[in-house]
Amino acid sequence: MIGGYCSHKDKGNHSARKGMILFRRFSYFGDGVSRPTDTTMVCVLSAISQMGLLEVGALVHGYIEKLGFTPEVDVFIGTGLVDMYSKCGCLNSAISVFELMRAKNVLTWTSMATGLALNGRGNETPSLLNRMAESGIKPNVVSFTSLLSAYRHNGLVQEGLELFQSIRVLPSVAPPPTGVSLLAYLFPLPLRLCCRRSEFVPPSRFRSVGLALEFRRGWVNS
């Protein structure tokens, strides 16, 4: 039930709140035998991320350590903590947890890279993606989608285009062949529809970063 509520995202985060209430009841009024698993705690961290409750997140982090789930050895807990701290605006804590982790998967690196973008340090993202590739893990479509969505969320369209252009020249972290179409995630729907020109420009038309830049300039200057 906790996982179901925490994974269901809705406007107002009502489901996440219900999940947190259930978790509190479970942790305070349990049968003394059952205890939360690492899966339960990752779900709880997700709910905290949705609500942006940093103080609660710090308390839950302490509770996780008390349960014996340390980010150094548990990649899922570590990734959940990186994501939670990043989305709650505490980037330094996210970086500390990230650097402590002995094992990292593609979601861990994606969460850290997205956290940098969300917290105004997107200029460090290419370097982190390079480190990711050097560790033997290559960014996937989800990685680029999350990154570009983070730039759009902060209104950093130009910065997102510059990031995409910079990583295209790095073979180790270059987007997949269809990656250029991901640029659509940088633009809100009105831009994609190009309403001032009454012309729909589908993502498939973004055949190069240059075209995307021209499209943006044309819309802004029209």
Automatic annotation (TrEMBL):
<dbReference type="GO" id="GO:0009451">
    <property type="term" value="P:RNA modification"/>
</dbReference>
<dbReference type="InterPro" id="IPR002885">
    <property type="entry name" value="PPR_rpt"/>
</dbReference>
<feature type="repeat" description="PPR">
    <location>
        <begin position="105"/>
        <end position="139"/>
    </location>
</feature>
<keyword id="KW-0677">Repeat</keyword>
<dbReference type="GO" id="GO:0003723">
    <property type="term" value="F:RNA binding"/>
</dbReference>
<dbReference type="InterPro" id="IPR046960">
    <property type="entry name" value="PPR_At4g14850-like_plant"/>
</dbReference>
<protein>
    <recommendedName>
        <fullName>Pentatricopeptide repeat-containing protein</fullName>
    </recommendedName>
</protein>
<dbReference type="Pfam" id="PF13041">
    <property type="entry name" value="PPR_2"/>
</dbReference>
<dbReference type="InterPro" id="IPR011990">
    <property type="entry name" value="TPR-like_helical_dom_sf"/>
</dbReference>
